[in-house]
Amino acid sequence: MLPPGGRISGTRLARLLGEWRRSGARQGSTDLAAALKLLVADGRLPVGTRLPSERELTDALPVSRTTITSALDQLRTEGVVESRRGAGSWINGPVGAGGGITGGDDTLIDLTRCAPPAHPGLRQAMVAAMDQMPEHLGSHGYHERGLPALRQVIADRYTARGLPTSADQIVVTSGAQHAWALTLRLFAGPGDRVLVEQPTYPNALEAVRAASAIPVPVPMTDDGWDVDAYEAALRQVGPRLAYLIPDFQNPTGLLLPSAGREKLVAVLRKAHTPLVVDETLVELSLTDEPMPLPMAAFGGDLVVTLGSASKSHWGGLRVGWIRASAEIVHRLTSTRAAIDLGTPVFEQLVLTDLLRDPEPVLRQRRLEFAAQRDVAVQALAEHCPQWNFKVPAGGLGLWCTLDAPVSTRIAVMAQNHGLRIVPGPRWAVHGGCEQMLRVPYTQSPEVLREAIGRLGVIAASVAGTGFPADAELSTPVA
Ligand SMILES: Cc1ncc(COP(=O)(O)O)c(C=O)c1O
Q: Given the CA of residue 115, which atom of ligand 1 is nearest to it?
């Protein structure tokens, strides 16, 4: 049977691969095969994708045709790639349990997700929700905007944060990612430009691309958001929309202070560009400093806010929301029917229960994450002393600057050490970030110590095998 998927060009594959090669390494084919497996394991080369011809790959990649043939042979032997005369080669995957990754001690640690397990209070909220289910079982159960009680407690939370909000400004969604996809459908069409931070959350970029819109990166500085750069980008590209993560930004962990919020909203307002603010991490402040007001407090109806229960409670609930003007809420709910017809009632009841009195759980969560962050900081200082990072005041990850542009190499090598981690270029629109690596601290102290210990071993084995740091500096960032 012929593969069902689309075809990837040699140039795109080369871009996805990043700096996979150890300079001067003799085992180029093994490295290439490992880098391709990483792409299959993390879903960027879906099963069924047709690969470019060997000739096209030879033009696109900085290695000989023999190396490419040998890498594909290895992948065919492992069942990752299949080829047929006349039909070419395609990804046959899957790469096997754990993404084909082997650990020395068979324990796979997944650092690709910055998502904590559920807190103990969730079970109790589930029991309470189960008791309420009979009230709902007699109705059709479709709530395009969400259960009224949940919309009310979400609105109350905004009001408590200093942003008066009513329930008719809230639409409950199946997570913040779904909320972003729904919002994109309303605001952006094929070819529209969407301003995004660089670096930014890879799935947010994927959603922009899936809407056939074009993500336009605005580079973050070491301190955060450069308002002048936004002003210039707004003037130069005339975007339809801007997307921002101002609260413990994923991946940098940075927080945009009030003054910056005010200035940024002012330049967006001047350009009549709506702003989508992703507040997925907003509840995870790890200090006693008061949080700045939500962006929407500065931007009014210009701002659409996305929220989520995934980080503060549990990703498995798949509940998020959109806060917007009542008019946008109305338009969002009318277009939603093409995608889905609402979020499951049970999970909404669970979250309603949790949000009625959110502080005790959040306080406990923050203590736990702060302790895990400190374990990660200490383990990195011990095992990867050559890496630099700022200790974030909130959020769930450390954005590390490596001593050389070897992020993809580390992610590729990690597969042989029972570790999965996202290579830096995935956080960038057109590649780059090859000297950056995000280390989430969402797992237990024991697992974190083990994972960072493995990273230290990998970093040492990769040391001196990367490209000179200048190569990263000259990477164009559009
Ligand atoms: C910035 C950001 N937005 C959205 C999401 C996805 O959230 P959800 O699980 O609510 O879809 C994440 C998850 O990591 C995230 O970091």
A: 14
